[in-house]
């Protein structure tokens, strides 16, 4: 069985249809090509905590995603609230993913320290925040993608198609 992955874009501009969501496309490509994952749900919401929380809860409790990747809203701007929405819906912290992504990203750009991204678990769903830009998405997801099949196998108690890989 392939890993079920949901993508949530938090972007005021994107939610108004003012920008093509190339960041979500980067996620889709990496997940399908590097992890043989299946995108089961995709949503774009404005940078509003309630809307981000509602989407994360639906993707977990109704769509039963194994993994949710958010993009956008992790920076220092007043409207950047994706980490707060994520922390409000998780029941366990899993900080190692965000730590690894920031550590790897700092080697690419010192601006990586501006990301407040968090990672955690709601039920049997792993939720990872990624930055908004396509470059940030690619560099952050690349830092952890090799470990995701093993992490999801332990979290869900299932093996994916490539679950026997390290
Ligand atoms: N979903 C996205 N798709 C493509 N590019 C994006 C996306 N989100 C952000 N970017 C790019 O990353 C840059 C920095 O992201 P930031 O979150 O500050 O975007 P913004 O446009 O200021 O805010 P918002 O997306 O909430 O309207 C943006 O200028 C934009 O070029
Ligand atoms: N690897 C990597 N991480 C990165 C970046 C990047 O270009 N590459 N951009 C940074 C910048 S400029 C910001 S403001 C923060 C938060 O981005 P967000 O507000 O779009 O979520 O992510 C940071 N993390």
Automatic annotation (TrEMBL):
Native species: Paenibacillus oleatilyticus
Keyword list, A-Z: Molybdenum cofactor biosynthesis, Nucleotidyltransferase, Transferase
Main function: May be involved in the biosynthesis of molybdopterin.
Keyword check for Transit peptide: no
Annotated EC: 2.7.7.75
InterPro entries per the UniProt record, alphabetical: MoaB/Mog-like_dom_sf, MoaB/Mog_dom, MoCF_biosynth_CS, MPT_Adenylyltrnsfr/MoaC-Rel
Name of the protein in its database record: Molybdopterin adenylyltransferase
Molecular function GO labels: molybdopterin adenylyltransferase activity
Gene that this polypeptide is encoded by: mog
Keyword Transferase annotated: yes
Pfam families membership: MoCF_biosynth (PF00994)
UniProt xrefs under PROSITE patterns: MOCF_BIOSYNTHESIS_1
């Amino acid at each position: 069985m392939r890993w079920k992955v949901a993508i949530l874009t938090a972007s005021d501009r994107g939610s108004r249809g003012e920008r093509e969501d190339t960041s979500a496309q980067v996620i889709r490509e990496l997940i399908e090509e590097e992890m043989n994952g299946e995108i089961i749900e995709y949503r774009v919401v404005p940078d509003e905590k309630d809307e981000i929380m509602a989407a994360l809860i639906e993707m977990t409790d109704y769509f039963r995603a194994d993994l949710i990747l958010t993009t956008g809203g992790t920076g220092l701007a007043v409207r950047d609230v994706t980490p707060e929405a994520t922390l409000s819906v998780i029941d366990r912290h899993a900080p190692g993913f965000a730590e690894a992504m920031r550590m790897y990203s700092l080697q690419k750009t010192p601006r990586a320290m501006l990301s407040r991204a968090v990672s955690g678990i709601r039920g049997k769903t792993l939720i990872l925040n990624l930055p908004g830009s396509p470059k940030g998405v690619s560099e952050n997801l690349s830092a952890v993608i090799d470990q995701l099949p093993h992490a999801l196998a332990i979290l869900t108690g299932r093996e994916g198609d490539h679950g026997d890989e390290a």
